[in-house]
Design goal:
Elements: E1 15-16, H1 20-26, H2 29-41, E2 44-45, H3 46-53, H4 57-69, E3 73-75, E4 87-90, E5 95-96, H5 106-133, H6 138-141, H7 155-174
Parallel strand pairs: 1-5
Antiparallel strand pairs: 2-4, 3-4
Helix pairs in contact: 1-4, 1-5, 2-3, 3-4
Keywords: DNA-binding, Transcription, Transcription regulation
Domain HTH arsR-type: 21-104
Organism: Isoptericola hypogeus
Length: 198
Amino acid sequence: MLMTQRPDEPAAPVRTVTEAKALAALANPFRARIMDALKVDGPSTASGLARRTGQAVGSASHHLKVLRDAGLVAEAPELAKDRRERWWRLVAPGLRWSRQEFADDTAAVAAAQAAEALGAQRQFERTRAWLANAESAPEWDATAFATQSWLHLSPAELDELGAEVLELLARWSRRDRPDDDVERESVLVFARGFPAQP
């Protein structure tokens, strides 16, 4: 799994997650939404994240502390206007994990599977919501895309293809936003590649 950085973030390494605690934190739907909101909107307060994700402020604060303890978010005190205000940011602009890297840790493997399942479910739900409402945004409906390809690949070739797709998405994520007064919205692009049969 990989999440690329925001266009306005400085280039930084993608963090490889190998701890069960971090993976378990990512397997919670509210925490996943907080991570997404920080990715899309940048640093925020618990109040701002609560509004963005439809949670109570106390719940957002709790989830932020869990994410902090898992090493996924950190306070951004330089953004606070006073000592009472607490801002939060992502620790790394991107995360990556592979179950093979911690195959001996059954708790980490289970947490990785739960986080991956949640991610796939959220991708499906967002796709379904888009399809149900696409007609309300004809300018986006005309440009939204989906693709499916059947390829014959070795594991090494699938790894190479995945790296190329991730680099393409990272390039678009890092690009300078043109100063052209064109309104831009957050756009979800996801891809999966795995062995399957028709």
